[in-house]
Amino acid sequence: MRTSLEQQILTQIRPETEERDHIHAIARTLVAAVDRSGIAEGMVVGSVARDTWLRGDRDLDIFMLFDPALSREDLEEKGLALARSIASACGKSYREKYAEHPYINALVNEMDVDLVPCYRVSSPHEIQSAVDRTPFHTRYISERIGSLTDDVLLLKQFAKTGGFYGSDQMTEGFAGYLCELLVYNYGGFSSLLEAAATWKKHTFIDIEKIAEKEFADPLVVIDPVDPRRNVAASVSLTQKSAFIEMARGYRERSSPWFFMPVQEPNLSRPQFQDTLVARGTFLYSIFLRTPPLISDIVVPQLRKSMAAIQRLLERNGFVVNRADCCMQEEKSIILFELLVDRLPQLRCHFGPPVWERENAERFLEKERSLIFSGPFIDDGAYVVEIPRPHTHAATLLSSPELLETALGKHVKLSLLDGWTVREGSDCWDKEFSSFLGRFLKNESPLIQIRRRESEK
Prior knowledge:
The chain is α+β, with helices and mostly antiparallel strands. The protein is built from 16 helices and 15 strands.
């Protein structure tokens, strides 16, 4: 049973008839164009096929199903050629993009359209690439979601407000297909929130009772069409926890704010500077050219590089309070907030205990021309006081030592072309203003909603 609030929200987020007719008309045109080619079968997949898209979402996925006897090379060649010809005939512009294999992203009648080649396999057990699974997802949900379509819309809008809607690497949240499966499994939006409010660190859901593999992820939802796949693999523990918090908050006291995504906190440069002064910390950013790959490849490499550089900073005595990264089309940023950014020239270097004779003698034999003091014995071990190689965090982050850390492969290639280190208020960048605002004004989703309620 939906509440009056939820019924009111549905009138605002359901696609209107004109929008629905417009999208379906474009979909029919594109599917017909694929079918006319005689080499592939067109199919609408995703939320449009299942009528679970939110008003204003202008994404359309058209799959081009080819004979599974084709080689992967032929699939890519014929698939791209067909997609280009359809995009040229029907669209305003298009570009080639890459996932597991290349596809075409086109702008058709102001709609964002993906034209994706895949194999027309008769069973999920016969898939040859990840995208071959998608038509089976569409059929599974379309046959079952029925009267629960509105519940899916509520969940998607709820997840958008919480910032955990989307399975991309930056979001680490809930994909549309996962939202549909959760609603179907629990029988509705309200019953899902009731269950989620009691979720623990690890949650396991297997709708069809077919699991063939164990997963250690925080949320495990076995794919009903693939018993060895976790649909919720993208969901981080942080984002799962945000969903639990929101579910509890909504059940305790619901309000329209749970369905109203907040505008990102775009801090102006003066606001940014004032916030930094108030925090009393030291902000450093590394700007680099974004590698020419999809976000699902680049973002994990940015995070890996961020962790490696954080370890480099801390090995050199610069304590990191928090770190984050963000990818944009042309450039990316890795951000560090330090509790200290300048250190004295002297640092202590600890050697082996005196009773480890061989190691101790080797330590004593080393060149000591730059020693301030020592070697001396402290608590049974040798110690020397020597010059610190970097007394300022900026010089460390600008040094070649950065390239010697465990960076992501493509991030390193980009850094080899050069990078820029900025400090303090100079870290502000218009393109990343919302990312910087979130970093400095960090709140959990429910806290943000309660604050907005109180300020209204």
